[in-house]
Amino acid sequence: MTALPGPAVRTGLATSVPTGPSGLSDLAVSPFGLPLALLRDEVPVAFVGRTSTEDSQDPRQSLMRQLERCKTALPASWVIVAHFYDVESGRMDLDQRSQKTNYERFGIPIARDGGVTDLLAEAGRPKRRFEVVICENTSRVARRMYETLSVERELERAGVPLFAWNEPIKLDGGRAQQILQRRINQSVAEYEVLNTLEQSWGGTCAHVREGWNIGKPAYGYRAKKYQHPNPAKAAHGATKTRLEPDGKRAQTVTQIAAWRYHEHLGYDTIVARLNNDPEAHPPPEAPNPHRSRGAWGKSSVYEILRNPKYTGYQVYNRRAMRSRHGKQNDPRLWVWSPQPVHEPLIPKWMFDELAALRGGTRASHAGNDMGSHPAARRTYLLRGLVFCACGRRMHGTRRHDQTYYRCWPAGNNLGRPDKHPDHPSSVYLREDGLLDAIADFYSQRVFGTDRRDTLTRDLDGIEDREAAARVSERDRQQRALTDLTRRQQNLLRQAQDADPGDPFTAGLRASYNDLEQQRVELLATLAAHEAGDHPTVTRPSPDETALIDALPYLALNLATAPEPLQRHLFDITQLAVTADPDQHEATITITLPADDLDAITTAATAIADDQHPTQPADDAPERDFVAFSSVPPVGFEPTL
Most exposed of 105, 188, 249, 622 (fewest Cβ within 10 Å)? Predict the structure, then answer.
C-alpha cells in the first residue's frame, strides 16, 4: 500500500480515490509508470494545446475550449500552472515547431509559456514547474503518430505522464487500457488527416486537369472568371478562373522567348532590352510591394523561360510551398492538363528546346563575338558549340600549336569515377579538321547548287542504313532464339535419366524455366519487329525543304573569312557539333529559322563577297528546318 496524505476528489470525467481509516489508499497501486508525485495533495499541471492556422478554424475559441475541457478532467487538487500552445500545423516536424509568433494576432486570453518544444525543454529540468501534462486529445500535440510518440517518450523519460481529456485518467498506475485507447485514437486521427489530404489532392488535380487556374496568374496572363460549375457554390458567388493573354505583357513573354531561342541572347542582354522600353515591356510586380524595383531583373526572365504554363497547358505542383519552403519539385511530380487549355505565349516545341539547352549548358551570346570570358587569354571560334556524346560541352585547349576541343571529366583531377562509367578518360577533337568539315557542309549543303539533291541522297542513305540495321537485328534475334531452343533440348535430355526427387533435377527444371522465360520475351520482341514496331525516318515536308531554296547560291570560303563573321553565321544558324568517340565521328547540325532567313543571307553574303544583303523569297514558309550531316572521323587524337 502507498501512503496518501489526503483525499483527492476528481470532478468531471474523473472518479474519487477512496482512502481507508488509516489514510492509506485502498487501491492496489501498479508499479508500472505511476510517479509518486501524483499522490500528493496538490499536483501542478501543464496544459498543452494546438490549433491550426486561421484559414482552418478560429484559434482563439479553439484554445479556450481545449483549456476548459482539460480543467473538467482534473482532480480538484490538481492545478494548471503553465500553458504551452501553438497556432500552426500539427504535421510539422518537431524541430520546426513553436518558431512562429502569429498567435499574437488573435488576442488569445491565455498566458502563454511557450510551445511544445518549450514544454519538452522544461520537462527535462530538475526544477520544473509541473509534474503532469494534459491535453484535449493527443492529436493536439501533433497530427502524426511519430511526433506524438516522440513527445510522449520524452515526457516519460523525464517522469512526466501525459493525460488527455478524452481518455480515462487512472491514479492506480494501470496504463494498459489507457495506452490501447490512446493508440487507437492516434491511428484514427492520422488516418483522417491522410485521407482528407488525399481527397483534397485528388480534387486539386482534377481541377487543374480541367484547365482551371490556381493562385495568382503568371506574368503575361490575367484571370478570366467563370461561374462555378457547382450550382450551390455559384449561388453564393463562387467562381473559377482560366488564363487569358494580358496585352503587352503577353507580347513581352513571346518576345523574351524569341530573343533567347533565335538570337541566343543572355539574361543580361535581354534585361537591358526590356528596360530600354518599359512602356512596351511592363516590368513584373513583386509579391511584396515594398521590394518592387519597377524594373526587369535576370531572375524574372529566368522564371518566365522555365514556366511551362506559357505553352498553353495548365501545370500545378511545380513547387513544394509548404513541405520544402517553395523549392522546385522534380518535373515528374508536376500535374499537367491533358491538352492546352489557354492561349500559349511560347510554342511547346520552343519551350522544350530551350529547356534542353539549359540542361546541356549551351552558351548564350549577346552578339557575334566568340562568347569568351573577359579574363580569358585566348578565344576559340567554336566555343560553346561542340558537345561530347555524353552531353557535356567540350572546352577549347592548345597543345603542340594546335587547337583542340576536349571532354575531360572533372573527376579526373580528383580521382573520382565519372558518372558515365564507359566514358574515355578524355576525348580530343582537332579544330582545323573540324572547320574544314564545317566549311564543306555550308558550301555544299546550305549554299551549294546541289543542296536539294544532296539532302535527298542523305535521307535515302539513312533509310537504307536503318533498313539494314533492322535486318541485322532480326537475324541476331533469330540466332539467339535458335540457341535458346538448343539449350532447352539439352536440359530435357539430362532430366530424362535423372531422379525426379534429386536436387540436380530441380536445378535443371529451374534452368529450363529461366530459358523459357527468355524465349517468350524474345518471341514477343520478334513479333513486334515483324509487325513494323520500329522508328522510321521522318522526311521534311515540301514547305520545310523550301527553306533551303529561299537561301542564295553562294561559293563560301570560310577558311579565309574573319572569325567574327564566321561566328555570327554559326550562331544565327544554331550550329552544333556532337562528337562520338566510340564511332570516331562528329555530327554537325544546323537550324534554319524561318524568321531569320534574311539575316542568314546577310551573314553568308558578307563572307562570300562583301556585297549588300539579298532578301529571301517572299513566299518562304513560316517554319523551321533542321539540316544534319555525319562527318567522317576527322581530328580525333589519342589522349596526350
Answer: 622
For 384, the grid coordinates are 560553346
Domain boundary among 501, 530, 559: 530
d(CA 398, CA 375): 17
535 domain-assigned: no
**Domain housing 172:** 36-195
Structural domain includes residue 16: no
* Range of lowest pLDDT (168-182, 213-227, 565-579): 168-182
CATH code of the domain containing 341: 3.90.1750.20
Return all residues near 77 (Cβ < 8 A) that are at least 6 apart.
6, 8, 9, 41, 42, 43
Same domain, yes or no, for 164 and 98? yes
> For residues 264 and 368, what is the distance between their CA atoms, to the nearest angstrom?
10
- In a domain? residue 320: yes
- Look-up of cell digits 475559441: 61
Split at pLDDT 50, 70, 90, the class of 558 is confident
- Compute CA 381 distance to the chain's CA centroid, rounded to the nearest angstrom: 35
Summarised one tens digit per residue, pLDDT across range 94-141 is 777 877 777 777 888 888 888 888 999 998 888 889 988 999 888 888
Q: Among residues 122, 116, 128, which one has the least CA distance to residue 37?
A: 128
Same domain, 341 and 371: no
Beta strands (DSSP E) in 411-555 are 427-430
- Over residues 428-443, the pLDDT tens digits come to 888 888 888 888 888 8
Does a structural domain hold residue 138?
yes
Name residue 190's amino acid.
Answer: E
* Same domain flag for 226 and 279: yes
pLDDT at 636 over 50: no
